[in-house]
Amino acid sequence: MQLGTTFIAGPATFPCCTAGSGIVVQPIDNISSRATVLRVIPNPFGDYIQVNYQIDEGVDNVNLTMTDISGKIVKNIPINSKDKGEYQVEVKTNDLSNGVYFIQYQSNGKTVTQKIIKANKN
What we know:
The protein is mainly beta. The chain has strands at residues 23-27, 38-41, 48-55, 62-68, 73-77, 85-92, 99-107, 110-118.
């Protein structure tokens, strides 16, 4: 996908998540033309994060994982839609301790990693 390309998705549902999983996937409407492949907000985060990601044409495999500082996978974030576009996933993180984490996006040999920090006030 070229920089400046915007994909606007209509209403859709994704049967990827079971009730109580804490993960909600939905298309993003009105994306800025400066959107990046991976963006996580807020950062630092508390009880949830929103992961915005882009899927290019011809994608065979998409993975989103969250690891702790030691590299241990703490969350596998399911991606069932492989259609071209930009999406967001909301992930509950209230079960994680304060600290440094990494979100990793992998698609067709492309890997993008973003460092995020959990800093809940107690």
